[in-house]
Amino acid sequence: MYRHTQRSAALLTFLLLAAAVPLALLLFGPGPTLPAGPRLTLAAALVAMATSAVVFSSLTIEVADGRLSWHFGPGVLRKSVPVAAVAAAEPTTTMWWEGWGIHLTTRGWLYNVAGRRAVLFTRRDGTRFMLGSDEPEVLAAAVRRAGAADRGRA
């Protein structure tokens, strides 16, 4: 069993500062003289940035019960794969331009919140994906152990 949550103070701070801009404009800007449309747009931007801060500032990865699972924040955007479907798990480093979040790269989908360290997973069907981690060697070893144990039971 493996479970680890990586948090990103930098991403949380950046997104909360971004949320502070529309909040300041709503509280200290033109106020009632601002038409309803722009006020609603500022409110929507505030909600979007604050929600993004909560959702995307942490990534939890778990290896248990024959599955590799991960989710952002308090459980939003969950994904999982059977460890039996994983052919390889190798620590890697992402490119600086690949950034953070969820997006497609030349090596498959990337899910991360901080740093450039990750584990590159290759599935038995040849598809690949990467999970960002501040302990990629430990994660890769946990998936390999779980896969070996799963094959041993079969």
Task: Output the strand order for the largest sheet.
Answer: 5-8-9-7-6
Percent range for β-strand residues: 35-45%
Which range best describes the helical content: under 10%, 10-25%, 25-40%, 40-55%, 55-70% or over 70%? 25-40%
> Quick check: average pLDDT?
91
Describe the structure.
The chain has 154 residues and is α+β, with helices and mostly antiparallel strands. It has 2 domains: 8-56; 59-153, PH-domain like, CATH 2.30.29. It is 38% helix and 36% strand. It is built from 3 helices and 9 strands, in the order E-H-H-E-E-E-E-E-E-E-E-H. It has helices at 9-28, 36-56, 136-153; strands at residues 2-7, 58-64, 67-72, 76-82, 86-93, 101-105, 108-112, 117-123, 128-132. The strands form 2 sheets. The chain has a 5-stranded mixed β-sheet with strand order 5-8-9-7-6, covered by helices on one side. A hairpin with a 3-residue loop joins strand 3 and strand 4. Helix 1 packs antiparallel against helix 2. It is elongated. The two termini are 18 Å apart. The relative contact order is 0.17. The mean pLDDT is 91.
List keywords for this structure.
154 residues, alpha+beta, PH-domain like, 2 domains, 5-stranded mixed β-sheet, 3 helices, 9 strands
Brief characterization of the structure:
It is built from three helices and nine strands, in the order βααββββββββα. It is an alpha+beta fold and 154 residues long.
Topology:
Elements: E1 2-7, H1 9-28, H2 36-56, E2 58-64, E3 67-72, E4 76-82, E5 86-93, E6 101-105, E7 108-112, E8 117-123, E9 128-132, H3 136-153
Parallel strand pairs: 7-9
Antiparallel strand pairs: 1-2, 2-3, 3-4, 5-8, 6-7, 8-9
Helix pairs in contact: 1-2
